[in-house]
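Complex 376.
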Amino acid sequence: MSELGKLLDDVIGLSERIIGPGVVHLDQTAEFPKQAGRELGSLGVLGLLSAKDVGGMGLKAPAAVRVVEAIAQRCGSTAMILSMHYCSVLAIEAFANEDIRKKHASGERLGTLAFSEFGSRSNFWAPVSTATPGPNGFSLNAEKSWVTSANHADDYVWSSKPHSAAGPMTLWLVPADSAGLSVGPAFDGLGLRGNDSTSISAKDVAVGEDAQLGEDGKGLDFGLGVITPHFNLLSAACSLGLMEAAVERAIKQATSARLTHLNSRLCDLPTIRAYLAKARIKTDMVRSLVYDAADALATGREDTLLRVLEAKAAAGEMSLEVIDLGMRVCGGAAFRKEFGLERIFRDARAASVMAPTTDALYDFIGRALCGMELFS
Ligand SMILES: Cc1cc2nc3c(=O)[nH]c(=O)nc-3n(C[C@H](O)[C@H](O)[C@H](O)COP(=O)(O)OP(=O)(O)OC[C@H]3O[C@@H](n4cnc5c(N)ncnc54)[C@H](O)[C@@H]3O)c2cc1C
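Predicted structure with flavin-adenine dinucleotide bound:
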């Protein structure tokens, strides 16, 4: 069996044993999935994108997509927490010191992205937060609007305006225990309720020169060239896992619910079978696109940019269509919390507003098609 095959078996096993059984409690209480995080760490999953020389698995986007998809089938929150960790690891791998890289590869430290700000909202490519040079490094001031794992991450990959250069963005590695950081109110969201996504305020947070990730003013190059393509794919993988879970539930209901007076099952109705067929086709179409986009990114294909933009937009929007079909198949049962489909519906809503939002993606894709610059 391949390394990825073995890893997926382990991840699916963990999802069946721990992640899936915990999802109702997580959704009710908005509790962070700590045990799942520990178990993923001990399986080496947190180090999937870390290089082998620091103890990671040295795998690429296609493997991360498969793992996130498998977890999202059982818990959207855990899948998104892992996705944000992977995105932070990309910057840590590229720019941080060996000690930090090892700690993220081993799962000892959890990372996340702190990009979105109250000032520039979902337009993360235009941070308004600042970094000011001081005698021993820099002072960071920011109002970050949404940070997944805000209370549970050990390190934030953080964006600011440059301190000296002209470019739009500089990246930082900010330890969560830095003095001057304060995390906002507990997350009580519509969906992804376990992912602890809340605001973080930074007031004169002192960081050393070594906290800067890459060159001053070049953060957006790395953000758009490396982090965003991976985030798009991982967000798409979350949507894909949620779609698959909806299809699975709908098939189960259609083949088990009985119309006693007709001595038949729901799936004996042609309308129900057609809904299932449409849901299956849409899910498989998205899977083909997402896997192809992941392959494009891993192999450096020329169409990578377009593919990864398309993948997030298609998966985010089509997941809503597929879940709607699932809810039609399941009828009133879909309205009941214990059935689980309404949680999938709520979790899936996040993708279209997570940056780049679907609206921004449509604009970027249109610009790419017309040979225009993405930003002007
Ligand atoms: C569950 C969850 C977890 C999150 N986790 C993180 C995280 O870990 N790190 C992080 O940095 N951020 C995170 N975010 C933030 C996310 O990436 C977005 O920045 C945020 O959802 C945008 O919300 P907003 O109210 O600021 O939207 P707004 O920017 O106010 O958008 C409102 C509407 O305007 C549209 N719009 C805005 N700008 C454009 C544009 N340029 N082109 C076209 N349409 C546009 C949007 O599509 C949307 O429909 C998270 C969000 C959620 C919901």
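The chain has a mean pLDDT of 97.
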